[in-house]
Predict the 3D structure of the following.
Amino acid sequence: MPARKFYCDYCDKQFQDTPADRKRHVKGILHQQAKARWYDSFKQIPNPNPPLCFHLLNTGFCRHGESCKYLHPTKSPIETTPSPGNVLNLPPSLQPPPQGGYPHLPFLDWG
């Protein structure tokens, strides 16, 4: 009866299935590297701009705490009201006019 063959999914390699051969293969550096690459392929890349945590915004408490995958703002948006000199990232069309108004521009004839 021929010896059975073992196929390693990590290494895409086939060899004789004996306890000594399997142990030698599993302890080998190439198998360990292939296994590490396979597990690393499932790691998720963290989101640079995670959405806000709705539990924290709605209830003021998040049961996940620091391990929550959503963003926990330090201050609620209601508490952060802009003062006249402090405008929060508004586009130029929505920013208040400067003190003293806009500078006078000369009239140009278009045509």
